[in-house]
Amino acid sequence: MQNHREEHTADLVDSLKRISGKQLSPLDLLPHDDLREKLVELILSGVPPGLPSETANGLQQLRDALASEPVQDLNVVVFGGGTGLSTIVGGDSRSSSWARNPFSGMKSLFPKTRSIVCVTDDGGSTGELLKDLPLIALGDIRHVLLSSIQLSLLHELYGLTEAEATRTVSLLATVFNYRFSARPENSQQLLRDCGLAERNILPKAIQDGLEKRISLLFDDARLHNTLSRPHCLGNLILAASIYKRIPDRYDNIRLASEPVLVRKHLYRGIALLCALLGADELAVLPCTSVPAQLSLRYTNGAQLNGEYKSGHTHRGYPIDRAFVNFCGEPDVSSSVFDLIEGADIMIMAPGSLYSSLIPVFQVPGIADAVKKNHKALKILVSNLWVQTGETDLSMVDPERKFHLSDLLKAYERNIPGGTRGLFDQVLCLSLKNVPATVLQNYAVEGKIPIYLDREKVRLQGIVPLECGMYSPSVLLEHGVIRHDAEQFSLVIRTLWATFHHVTERGAAPTNSALITKSHFLTTSELPSIRYRQIRDYLAGISIELRSQTGKDDETLREILQDIIWNHKDIPLAHLQLVKGIQCIETEEWKRNQKWDRVYSFFDPYDGLLKIRQDQFRTEGDLEVAFLVALGQSLLGDYFQRKEMLPVTADGIILGKAYHLYLKPLAVRDCYLSNEDLSDYLALARMVQDPDDANHYTRLINGEEGFTPPGLLFGLTYAWYLDNRFASHIEYKMAVMKVDHTDLIPEQVKMRSRRESLIVFFREVVFGH
């Protein structure tokens, strides 16, 4: 093999020298400036028509040499998550059309392709699974596993022809992507519903293996709850494959408290399922065996936990930092490090900027291991489209969309030690030959390409390579642009063939504001433990409803459990002062109807959240009302009395003075410490009496409105969790988006107060 490689390299070098040695090289007839881009164009589009025969023959010989580059023994490692990673490896296995051509992509040309997968997903079926089982997120692993099935292995293991293998993979895609919302009665019903009851399609070993795993969902008490939630069956099959190896004497509570009991069975369960289905045993590896949670901090200072929530809550500010909260000491399989050390090619797959690659490289040791491998070709694959909530706003200029240099800066800021040594080239999808009408159709849908600012990218130390690696047939047939697995693998083979012969690099990068391990290595509670604690808490509080709400106690507890679960920023300690929920009939609601449009509050006298009856009609209204009242509850039973007194001069009423008298510290019941409460009241523009530390005042001019400190706290609490929940606070925070000037001192003060209030809620209230 080595001699063959050396002979082929000599032929390739001779072809390049012959062609480029001419005064006007035939390569000059190809588009692009970079030699690698020219060669990729030659591979993807062929020799341009109309050239003299000698020129055409020379280019064809070069194309043949590139196309015959031996790559089948190369070790390839791909990093990422979800759709982007699976598309590169073998096509998007969740697509209805995937099963028509399931054996293309990197795995076809590079059979030793392995994937290291992100595990911070917490939406959909994966999120439901985290409620019950002390496991990592399995959704992306399932997705990539299917895409990693190889024709050669199905033939080797089961003697399948290509047609038989295609039918097998088609049924596997149906089974693994099957979703249910109602609990199946038994395993036989589930087998029928997902299509596995139809025999003689799958090899017997695969059929038996899947049936056993599905039966385990019903037979293993630890997995029972999963069947009562909406799920993707492939995730449950993966979970069963892991639990199949864990002795049943270890229940989920024991497994949650001793993660080492899960770790080795996790890796082995995934490997055995890979091998059963016709993928390499190490085809799919999680970046860590420890459950992890994504946390994003925005440029306005607010910080949110949870990947799904971050992708669906539009804060209106660019993301500044991404952090991963690990549920324990991050563990990485030795196989991950072995694969990285032995890799010839490493690819950072396209995907969500902050929820795909960055969480992988924040796992301690992984980024360093990649940087220590100096022999590998390392390529970052750029996203094609701007993504709402992640790459729709630039930190450099929030008024414009993301440029590629912005994406690289985000990686530089959020990967320990920066990106130098992590990748040398960034691969971008060229849209030069895409009809304008297609791009216009995408723009109507809100999809805007990430702009390639080539020179800025070079100054960041990365070589940008623009290639047309999309499927022309899909574009022609459906008018859509997607990374094409087959085209992509051809591009990578071409770049590998030229890797040792083209030495151009970008400029030396300037590393600034880099994070280190100590900046991101934080811990959080295991999701399944938190979910159980929420359930136990809600079971112990009182519920007082009215029949007009249309809800019973049990239904309300379930709704509240989901609200608290979905807002992962809420520490369970925030619930400690709340003893129950009380519905107040609309006609009995005594609060100020003119000024107060908030229909919930915390009553410190009985510890109940009081919510007006009409707020129970929709879950959205109930969520806002609950969160505002919950926020108010953190102040607890903190005040002695409140009063509003007129302010007069010469018999003219100039305004009002709001007086707040705190309870003595010894009898005060408040979530905040005395110092924190004092800081908050100052942020609420309350002035402390120099002669009485428990007396605060606030002057209100004329007929101006006023938001009392308790209500402001509740509204800000709800706003922090989701800025759509408190328009009043969102309006106040809008001043932070205005270009301020020192010519308006009050505006500077106001902005500073808003920033300080957000920092207070982030650090003191939510503990970020």
Task: Explain what the structure shows.
With 768 residues, the protein is an alpha/beta fold. It has a domain at 2-66. The chain contains 31 helices and 21 strands. The strands form five sheets. The protein has a seven-stranded parallel beta sheet, sandwiched between helices. The chain has a four-stranded mixed beta sheet with strand order 7-6-8-13. α2 crosses α23, α12 crosses α14 and α25 packs antiparallel against α26 (553-566). The model has no long low-confidence stretch (mean pLDDT 87).
Q: Report on the biggest sheet.
A: 7 strands, parallel
Main sheet: strand order: 5-2-1-9-10-11-12
Terminus-to-terminus distance: 55 Å
Task: Give the integer mean of the pLDDT values.
Answer: 87
How many β-strand runs?
21
Structural class based on helices, strands and sheet pairing: alpha/beta
Q: What proportion strand?
A: 5-15%
Q: Which residue ranges are poorly predicted, with pLDDT under 50 across at least 5 consecutive positions?
A: none
The radius of gyration computed from the alpha-carbon positions, rounded to a whole number of angstroms, is 30 Å
Q: Note the total helix count.
A: 31
Helix content: 40-55%
> Outline, from the CA principal axes?
globular
